[in-house]
Every structure is written in structure tokens, then in C-alpha cells.
From TrEMBL:
Source species of the chain: Kosakonia oryziphila
InterPro entries attached to this UniProt entry: Myoviridae_GpU (IPR009734), Phage_P2_GpU (IPR016912)
Pfam families named among the record's database cross-references: Phage_P2_GpU
Protein name: Phage P2 GpU
Source domain of life: Bacteria
Amino acid sequence: MMMIYGMFVFELRTLPYQQLRHSMNWRHVKNDRINRSAKWQYIGAGETQINLDGVLYPEITGGDVSLTVLATQAYTGRPWPLISGAGQIYGMYVLTGLQATHTEFDRYGKAKKIEFSISFQRCDEDLRERLQASSVGDLLSGLKDKATSAYNSASSTLSGLF
């Protein structure tokens, strides 16, 4: 198994892809200021997209049936988990695009070669989004307060001894 999308398994017999592109974006806005340089502010995670590209040879690998099964799953409109064969959980994705190019036809009009491209869009929150700068800053501030308190306590104890 190369990858699984909901109930659809990507493997040699179905849709073996040769390329996986994983695109992640983070959003920043520019705040112009008078007589000063502009400031940039992080406003959160942007879109995450995965694209799979490959070539099918229906006599050896999957073909039209596999593409139809995947397209049928896309028509549900529901997000499905996308998990690699190595166990990496990408998250919940919807299938947003499927392109197929059929070439090298036999005498019955059946393609001997099918090039495909599949686009998935993430639609759930990445757990890492919870690690915002403010929460990290709060954590560091709390650690600083505890360290200052411990230092002051140790100082007063030591000064009382001498």
C-alpha cells in the first residue's frame, strides 16, 4: 500500500503515483505605518494541498475503473483521512481535482497509457496551529516568573544566613 484515502487504497493494482507534491502556506499581512517601515503580522495557517501525479498502463496497473472509483468517492463531497503507506497521517482531505489523459489506443479505442493528476485540499486544522506565538510567549513568561521567584527566594535565604 502506497497511500489510503478514506476507503480507496493507492497501490500498483489501482493508482500507483510516481510523484507526490505537498504544498503548505502560512498567511501574513502587511500593516503600513506612517514614517516607519511596514510591519508584518502572522494571521494563521493557509491552505495545504497534496497533488499526486502518475502514469497508468492498464495492462499492468490500474486503469479507468480505479479512476472511476476514486471519482465516485469524490462525489460524496465528504473529507476523508489521507494516510501514507509509511504511516504518516496527513489529515482530512477532500478531492478537488482529477485530470486524466488517455493515449496510445488499441484497435478497440481502449487507452494503453493513462496519465493522471489528482488534487487534494486539506479541510481540518493542523494540530501545530495551536502553537501560536502568544501561547509560546505566555509559556516563556511563566517560566521567567518562576525563575525570578526562585532566585529571589534563594537570595533572601542566603542573605539571612550571612
